[in-house]
From TrEMBL:
It is a multi-pass membrane protein. It comes from Nocardioides phosphati. InterPro entries: Cyt_c_assembly, Cyt_c_biogenesis_CcsA, Cyt_c_biogenesis_CcsA/CcmC. Residues 102-311 form the Cytochrome c assembly protein domain. The chain crosses the membrane at residues 12-34, 74-96, 108-124, 131-153, 165-193, 227-247, 259-278, 285-306. This is C-type cytochrome biogenesis protein CcsB.
Amino acid sequence: MTRLQLAQFSNQAIMFAAIVYALAMLAHIVEWAATRSTAPGRILVGPDGAELPSAGSDLGGAERPYRVDLWGRYGIALTMVGLLLNAAGVLARGLAADRVPWGNMYEFTITGCVATVLTYLIMLRFQPIRWLGLPVTALVVVLLMLAVLLLDVPAAPLVPALHSYWLYIHVTAAMLATGSFTVGALASVLFLVRNRAERRGTAGTGISARLPEADVIDTFAYRVHAFGFPVWTFAALIAGPIWARYAWGRYWGWDPKEVWAFVTWVAYAAYLHARATAGWRGKGAAILALVGFAALLYNFVGINLWGGGLHSYAGK
């Protein structure tokens, strides 16, 4: 295939990935709606993340919980297909440009979607977190639509400053951390929803009925952030400065993106430190985690669009 054909294939793969993710999102919406119609009160969750009928509940026999579980499995299967298409689009983009596909915001976005979905699916293999399926697929659909409609640019060679093997190391680590922080942010938002419902005594109704207990979500969010933080530390404070030394002759120059990468690190460090030493749990910790994610988003979007500096090429 020629580079033009590879570029066209990449665009088509990303488009179909967005469609399949949207179908996965719809499957999870049906799953959530079916769950809400099963029975009021507490929802029991099995080891695979599927809801189980509580004693004395009117579920219309075994058919209704079976359908709930089936729609959830449809959502997961479609998410996997979407991930394969998403990854194929990223790979084809790299082949079309004859480089790694991490040279601009469009490529960062489509690759970040792969990292986020992959993080979710890997964690789903070990923990019953199918309740995250709807927010994950919804977020990825929005990101891919924004990438295609607003950020897409023709594949082009890298600027000279990016010609280094540290590009592979630095950006790969940053993407892995970003995927973890994104999943953690979604979990923190759902924690706030569930925690509020528990305090108001409405945990068995509405959206919160589909979620596990607030303490379970809080613990999961902490573990995800605890995984992503050392990866971000390596990407932003070790690999990044080393690459800067080769590219610009200094390890650290307080460039806007460097500053906000450090701000992001401080926010997540404060969150993890508070959780580990002071036992700071609950609403305050979740809000602090979301502050860190907001700093991460500004580092990715705001600096690229408005911040300028030596990293301004990343917004092109």
